[in-house]
Prior knowledge:
By secondary structure, the chain is α/β, with parallel strands linked by helices. Helices cover about 35% and strands about 20% of the residues. It has helices at about 15-20, 30-35, 90-95, 125-135, 150-160, 165-175, 180, 195-210, 225-240, 250-255, 275-280, 285-290, and strands spanning about 50-60, 65-75, 80-85, 105-115, 120, 135, 215, 245, 260-265, 270-275.
Amino acid sequence: MSQDRVTDVGMRKPQSALAQKLEPARSLVPEHVEHGLEGDPRNIMVHEDPVLETRDLSIYYGSAKTIHNISITIPRQHITALIGPSGSGKSTLIRAFNRMNDVIPIAWCEGDVLFNGEDVYDPVVDPVEVRRRIGMVFQKPNPFPKSIFDNVAFGLRINRYTGDLAERVERALRVAALWDEVKDRLKDNAFGLSGGQQQRLCIARALAVEPDVILMDEPASALDPIATGRIEDLMHELKKHYTIVIVTHNMQQAARVADYTAFMNLGRLIEYGDTQKIFTSPDDPRTEAYITGRFG
Ligand SMILES: Nc1ncnc2c1ncn2[C@@H]1O[C@H](COP(=O)(O)OP(=O)(O)OP(=O)(O)O)[C@@H](O)[C@H]1O
Ligand SMILES: [Mg+2]
């Protein structure tokens, strides 16, 4: 994305005069630790026909460079996990995929984010449509203070869906494995559901508008093991039709659910590959240190 293509609605770069004054924050990290995947082609994974792709993506909060030149491809109808220590930039990267960083006024980016080959930051692209096709589920279930039905119908109504609303709501709740638990209480307030049910409701809400991709930022970290297991089972079902990108701090969870795993550290993509390889024979000593619990 070049500077002249940045729009008002998008994640903006600083005005050019200001940009010259803003130097990215000096890194306090030694050179050998800073080095990420750039220049290390052994580890770069290329998927044919990826649904999402970043090319040389850097993200800044004000003058602080937080994501450093990440190029990654996300394969269609698979589960990709982002792992790494707290503050390594997992949430910042996942939010770039559907332009959720736009809502943070000081955030701006360089490089490209492609969705089915199209630049999502192109000024002609409608960010609302981007978020319809690339849905998001957050760490803390965030149902609206509305009925269960109205929560799931929310996005459909915003998109002025003219078809059979009840049928779409039911379908989304069934896919999210919640229908049987709520079918007799659709008019009840969503806050009356348990945490795990609320999270599945949020997944149903994301599914109702028929996205292609679902981004999940630590979707199960607030849930007990049984509710977590249900979300993981659901992810296995969902990947038959959807692409999932999940951020998780739970190594067992990444190993259980993800086909591919990307390890991030200090805003860099350190290693990306088949989950089994990342967890059994990673190439980079930093990946190994992290997955064995020796840092982060
Ligand atoms: N809105 C913001 N404004 C300024 N800096 C931010 C903002 N959000 C995140 N950051 C900074 O960017 C860096 C990466 O944060 P991010 O939330 O992406 O990390 P993370 O890997 O998701 O961490 P965690 O595992 O704790 O959720 C951190 O240094 C964080 O302080
Ligand atoms: Mg995070």
